[in-house]
Write a structure and sequence with these properties.
alpha+beta; 50% helix; 111 residues; 2 domains; 3-stranded antiparallel β-sheet; single chain
Length: 111
């Protein structure tokens, strides 16, 4: 892996790659670059975890909780499809539904 260093040099930020100064920019420019890199990194992370996000969003939709994990319209549409037609219910409520007890338990007396 390459050796990348970021150092402060007065009001400037220096980017050093394998011991060679690549660029020196004012701190305001460095902050703008950092924001842009972070934004693209978050989008890349979302793409890398696409299936997990869709599945988790489907669970949230199935439970009726009004929050979203993504702003990507394709992923939201796929999550709704998964919530309605996928295996979400099986993972939420167990694989064998016959052992589930629904309702309020009743106490029966033998008098």
């Amino acid at each position: 892996m390459a050796n990348i260093q970021v150092k402060q040099n007065g009001y400037n930020v220096d980017l050093i790659y394998n011991g060679t100064l690549i660029t020196s920019v004012p701190y305001t420019v460095a902050k703008d670059i950092a924001r842009a890199i972070l934004e693209v990194a978050k989008k890349s992370e979302e793409s890398a975890n696409r299936e997990k996000i869709i599945f988790d969003q489907a669970i949230i939709a199935k439970l009726g909780i009004p929050i979203g994990l993504t702003n990507d319209p394709y992923m939201r549409k796929e999550a709704i499809k998964e919530a309605y037609y996928g295996d979400v219910a099986r993972y939420m409520f167990g694989k064998d539904k016959s052992k589930k007890i629904f309702g309020v338990p009743r106490i029966a007396s033998r008098n």
